[in-house]
Amino acid sequence: MPIFFLEPKRGDTSGPHWDLTSLKEGCWVIAGSETAARKCVEAATAQWRTDHRPGDASLHSPWSDPQLTDCRPDSSYLNVAEGVIVTVSGKVIA
Questions:
Q1: Are 85 and 71 in contact (CB under 8 A)?
Q2: Cα 75 to Cα 70: distance, rounded to the nearest angstrom
Q3: What is the C-alpha separation between 94 and 70, in angstroms, rounded?
Q4: pLDDT tens, position by position, 35-88
Q5: Which of 17, 30, 34, 88 suits a disulfide with 62, CB 3.0-4.6 Å?
Q6: Per-residue CA distances from 85 to 4, 14, 51, 57 (Å)
């Protein structure tokens, strides 16, 4: 399966959508498609704000939004195991 690299567009993590994720840096993940890569990172890093109710469509994880994050195939970093996310800083998220 391909490796994808996801990152905040222009390095911008200032919007309210970023409050819904614990990850605010680029990362690599193995996935079958861009959509699957985005869903994987979203699911593994989700955190809820106290004023946000699940199912409220007004805010969503930035990892699922192509206007907030870039996602592209990238095999430059090969030390990614299936089922984990590896961040630019070297953190592993299972």
A1: no
A2: 15
A3: 21
A4: 999 999 999 999 876 555 555 556 789 999 999 999 999 988 878 999 999 999
A5: 17
A6: 10, 22, 28, 26
Under 8 Å between Cβ of 23 and 94: no
Task: Tell me the residue range of the domain where 8 lies.
Answer: 3-93
Query: What is the tally of structural domains in the chain?
Result: 1
The model's pTM is 0.88
The CA–CA distances, whole Å, from 25 to 3, 45, 52, 79, 90 equal 16, 11, 22, 17, 11
36-51 as b/e: b if 16+ CB within 10 A = ebbbbbbebbeeeeee
